[in-house]
Amino acid sequence: MTASFFFDRTNLTPECAEKITKESLHGKDDGELFLEYKESEALSFDDGKIKTSSFDVTQGFGLRGVLGEQTSYAHASEISEEALKRAGKVIQDSSAQGTYTAPPHKTNQKLYTDENPLEKVPFKQKVDLLGTVDLYLRKKDPRVKQVSVSLRGSWQIINILRADGYIASDYRPFTVLNIIVHVEQNGRMEMARSVIGVRGFYEDIIKEQSWKHHADEALGKAIVNLSAIEAPAGEMPVVLGSGIPAVLLHEAVGHGLEGDFNRKGSSTFSNSMGERIASPGVTVIDAGNITDMDHAHGNLTIDDEGTPTTKNVLIEDGIMTGHMNDRLNARLMGEKATGNGRRQSYAHAPMPRMTNTYMLPGEHSQEEMIESVDRGIIALDFGGGQVDITSGKFVFSTAEAYLIENGKITSPIKGATLVGSGAEVMQKITMIGNDLELDQGVGMCGKAGQSVVVGLGQPSCLISQLTVGGTG
Fold it and tell me: Which own/partner pairs from 88-92 qualify as long-range (CB within 8 Å, at least 24 positions apart)?
């Protein structure tokens, strides 16, 4: 991978870019020129017809200078010598007396090729697929009243150039299929969705076996919701399923282990390094280079500062062992950069963000957990949620959950919310499943106004006591 993609189509040469970057960052502690090109498309099918279709191309650069804790940043959608010189004047500081830190180490890993996923499947085939899914679901069950299907994909190329001559590049494909089904029975309407995303090509998600599986999954969930009863309320045991319930782990624990929150003392886990913050057996990892599990949506060859991604153990057997760091926070904390410096686009400065965050499996089956519960619930899918990083308190709504009575699943429930504190919940995990999965859907993580794609996962686990909010 080279930087020629950007320079071949502009009047900006590699030599000129390196010269301006070096001059702009003189006296700084760190910084880089970040170049980005991105193609994205989206198609949606609703009410029996194509509702929207779009194709966009975005490109630009961001020039960042870091001195101490302060960051100066300038960006433009025009990649040219003139625009870069203007940005350099904003970044330059003649009084700066910093020492430019060493560049990231190089890597031989290459997670993705330079193939563009948007070009491999003809537009007509994509349109036909949406209509096929709609027809399939309507024919399968007369209770289906509405079907919404969408496809979207993107192809991003980034290039990072530092003042010391370091250059790194990455290609990042992404495709998504989203199916939403509305059903009606006896005047009651319910809906459910199934989403699959891959760091790959449309071929991976639009083959018949794949889309039928997700169409059936969405329909099945919607039909189950037709018979759901009101959720119980109170303190009770909660079994979390594998895969997407890890959104609770991501929000209530993952953000609290990002370096900036810990350096500033605003995380509930600040100053907890080496201390027990979870039950024995709980090991949590963030890794941006997973090759042995499907749906690692947060995979990146390098982060958005050029640091190769790796496997970072955050909690080991219940003991806090690490942070997720970008270069700035790693330098200020005397730690290493972990490949977690991420940004939404060229118009944003990087910050510590998760990649793929997951809990390692244990030895129990989900059936064992259910059998151990006299009265509680099992949550298999989540809707929205909120968390306070400082206190660790959270509220999450379930999208698919069931009542457990006398060790057996009895009725589906609706309207259940889980309320608690991340620090407390991690200490109440009493059984860890042997069924680790990464969520197949698309995790979009927001922080400080920026949104990035992440992966998340966990095995099933039993929380001995958790507050369930419900109306039953």
Answer: 88/20, 88/21, 88/23, 88/24, 88/63, 90/63, 91/24, 91/25, 91/31, 91/63, 91/64, 91/65, 92/23, 92/24, 92/26, 92/65
Within 8 A by CB and 6+ apart from 43, the residues are 50, 52, 53, 54, 126, 127, 130, 150, 151, 152
> Full-prediction pTM beyond 0.85?
yes
Amino acid at the residue 439: D
Beta strands, E only, 68-110: 70-76
Instruction: Name residue 92's beta-bridge partners.
Output: none
Q: Give the contacts of 298 (CB within 8 A, at least 6 positions apart).
A: 288, 354, 355, 356, 357, 443, 453, 454, 455
H helices present in 292-348, as ranges: 327-333
From the list 63, 75, 76, 79, the residue with the least C-alpha distance to 30 is 63
Identity at 209, one-letter amino acid code: Q
- For the cut 90, the answer to whether the pLDDT of residue 108 exceeds it is no
- Per-residue model confidence (pLDDT) at position 463: 97
Q: How confident is the model at residue 439 (pLDDT cuts 50, 70, 90)?
A: very high
* Maximum C-alpha span of the chain: 74
Burial class (CB in 10 A: 0-12, 13-18, 19+), 324: buried
What is the rounded CA–CA span in Å between residue 447 and residue 269? 18
Q: Are 323 and 259 in contact (CB under 8 A)?
A: yes
pLDDT band of residue 77 (cuts 50, 70, 90) is: very high
Q: Which amino acid is at 33?
A: L
Average the pLDDT over 84-113 and give the result. 92
* Distance separating alpha carbons of residues 465 and 467, to the nearest angstrom: 7
The 10s digit of each residue's pLDDT in 132-189 is 999 999 999 999 999 999 999 999 999 999 999 999 999 999 999 999 999 999 999 9
Closest CA to 175 of 157, 194, 195, 200: 200
**CA–CA gap between residue 7 and residue 12 (Å, rounded):** 6
The per-residue pLDDT for range 267-326, each reduced to its tens digit, is 999 999 999 999 999 999 999 999 999 899 999 999 999 999 999 999 999 999 999 999
